[in-house]
């Protein structure tokens, strides 16, 4: 009798399916997103919608891997390939996003997803594999290298506007009040036109290529109410605009810019304050000021708001490349390009920029 019982147990154990690696299909999106929203280490940039955004906007190939165990998703890893003669051949989680990398709840999912990324990188013949982590996932692994270039700025906010305003250092608080005194107001837009005008004007002033307007339209279409476009005006005049994401109890102002008039009326300070007010009223309790490079004006601006920088753990595994990628405006070899770009007419920059930025990620 005991041998029969043991045989039955062995057969039952064998019948339990092992975890399996799968690629995301449209029918899986709701399950994928439910898993992401349930995991504390996951971010807005792990949502399945980014697959549609990247493929539709730029035509890049994507592989959104997930591990399924007993019918439940236990890990996800969104990946996209960028292949460029100018900027190299890479596989990353995730281009055009601040964060990415593996999110796993338990079991062998993390190892399976790392192995899948490694096998894909070899098969594609990429120069490097990149994970954009908030916290290092491979600090003790000599096969991975880390680059200290970016930081993020996150801070808790209150439901009370006065408390939030008093938490802003005095100098920046005075700038917010200046904008209020000059009659600045915030409005929501359903389309991207006014936002794109402010954004493209601003990035041209910085000498960097612009994303195409279609990219922002697709983002708004894919993420719906979780993507908000806020415009700052003064008597009907466009001053600034910001495109923000909402995720759980967080608000993330992600793309923004101001017209030349924003400087004289504290338009950017007022814009972020107006967003903070609206986000707090909506229930957000974390204001994520987003990624900035060390030693830049954006870094200083956010720090002056009383936000403390937290280093981002961007990790790289090299394959055909011998050096870490350095495709950013701080690289000295791009300084001449930046100077020339600033002198280019905005209309021409807006036509040429999308052909460049699609390869930067």
TrEMBL record:
Residues 170-303 form the BioF2-like acetyltransferase domain. Pfam families: Acetyltransf_6 (PF13480). InterPro entries: Acyl_CoA_acyltransferase, BioF2-like_GNAT_dom, PEP-CTERM_FemAB-rel, PG_Glycine_Bridge_Synth. PANTHER family: LIPID II:GLYCINE GLYCYLTRANSFERASE. This is FemAB family PEP-CTERM system-associated protein. It comes from Massilia polaris. The lineage of its organism: Bacteria, Pseudomonadati, Pseudomonadota, Betaproteobacteria, Burkholderiales.
